[in-house]
Amino acid sequence: MTSYDDAMRTIIQLPDDQLDGLAALCRREGISRAEAVRRAVAEYTRARLRQNEDTAFGLWRRRRVDGVRYQQRLRREW
Predict the structure, then answer these.
(1) Residues 33, 23 contacting (CB under 8 angstroms)
(2) 27 three-class SS
(3) pLDDT tens by residue, 4-33
(4) Is the pTM of the predicted complex or chain greater than 0.70?
(5) Burial of 29 by CB count in 10 Å (0-12 exposed, 13-18 middle, 19+ buried)?
(6) What is the pLDDT of residue 53?
(7) What pLDDT sits at residue 70?
């Protein structure tokens, strides 16, 4: 069980259709509205952070520079 002693409260506004869907989900899962929102935010942030990591992967693949040599050259400047 997670402790929320140092958690921050926030107020959000949701349209009625989202509130209805959230209420149905909470009933089905047997969880509070706050827990459902926490889970949704956690899932959203994980997905977005992973998406950013995927964007950076292979960023240098089209460069005609050997990565190790480039790194060594930069370190010689230190």
Answers:
(1) yes
(2) helix
(3) 778 889 999 999 999 999 999 999 999 999
(4) no
(5) exposed
(6) 67
(7) 87
Q: Is 41 helix (H, G, I), strand (E, B) or coil?
A: helix
| Exposure string over 56-74, b if 16+ CB within 10 A, otherwise e | eeeeeeeeeeeeeeeeeee
d(CA 9, CA 32): 15
Tokens 């149905």 locate to 24
> Cα separation of 5 and 55, whole Å?
35
pLDDT in tens, 39-66: 999 999 988 887 766 667 777 778 888 8
The answer to whether 36 touches 22, Cβ cutoff 8 Å, is: yes
Task: Give the type of residue at 10.
Answer: T
